[in-house]
Description:
Helices cover 79% and strands 0% of the residues. By secondary structure, the chain is mainly α.
Amino acid sequence: MSRSVADDLASISVEEFLVSAAAGLASLGYARLEAKDLAQAKQAIDALQSIVPHISGDLHTELQQALAGLQVAFVAAT
């Protein structure tokens, strides 16, 4: 029996979902930078920047570092 998306979402915390979303945005941001799509890269950076404050602990630090690296790469690409 397959689980629905609602069941999947009900089984994780909001922070777990945010971590997953943040990791995806960081990866997408780098991919957009490599593709020279600066508008999309900036959108990913902005979205990531809005999520990171809602994550705590060691993951907050790691995602903050990923965000900073992405911002530096964006500036270098412009």
